[in-house]
Amino acid sequence: MDASTDLGYALYGLQQPDPRPYIDLTMAEVEASLIPKRAGLLAAEIASRMPHLVTLQKVTLWRTGPTPATATTVRYDQLKLLMTALKGLEAPYEVVAVNTLTDIALPTTEAGPCALRFTDRDVLLARSDLSPSVFQLSDVHVHIYEAASDAQSARGRCSDEADAVELPYALGAECCCSRLALALVVLAGTTRRT
């Protein structure tokens, strides 16, 4: 989807004596990005094509609260907005995996002491109207692991195995830092775990 910001203001602000005005700018950027409208447009695109599987990256959850520890009031939940829009279009999809990656909360100046919380997720959706003879998921799982490199960045993975009309697929959405890679591999023969 899209986080609605590159967090540039927030990252710059964290290097300043008072980061709160820069966190406010980040929230203003998010507000201006029309998240609900974009979720509706994405739902319309999905509904027009009706793929068996949909992988989504940067499915952000924006929350606020009195302090970073209590920032739990939802401002925007891109996953909920998308699923509501899909339901409104009668596009039968269900969430089969959510991998929570980054989850940070920062102080703002909005209406006194307040905090903005950003949670980044990868999500896997599947059509829920297909019979098992047409499409079936198995072994759905998510992982968070450390990269084996000098950069020691957190990594995440959502994956599953799917059979679609005797054509097996292995699917994974992988996240490393802010760079996300999506791989859809069509395998010959029987379905294998990746």
Summed up, what is this model?
This protein is of the alpha+beta class and 194 residues long. The protein has four helices and nine strands. Mean pLDDT is 78; it is low at 151-155 and 163-194.
Strand portion, in percent?
35-45%
Number of domains as seen in the coordinates? 1
- Structural class given helices, strands, pairing? alpha+beta
Please state the overall shape, judged from the principal axes of the Cα atoms.
Answer: elongated
- Whole-number average pLDDT? 78
Calculate Rg over CA atoms: 19 Å
- The number of E-state strands comes to 9
Task: Please provide a written account of the structure.
It is a single chain. The chain has helices spanning 8-13, 20-32, 35-49, 78-88; strands spanning 53-56, 61-65, 73-77, 93-108, 114-127, 135-146, 154-164, 167-176, 179-186. It is an alpha+beta fold and 194 residues long. The chain has one domain (8-186). The strands form two sheets. Strands 1, 2, 3, 4 and 5 form a five-stranded antiparallel β-sheet that branches. It has a four-stranded antiparallel β-sheet with strand order 6-7-8-9, with no helix packed on it. Helix 3 (35-49) packs across helix 4 (78-88). The chain is elongated and about 60 Å long. Mean pLDDT is 78; it is low at 151-155 and 163-194.
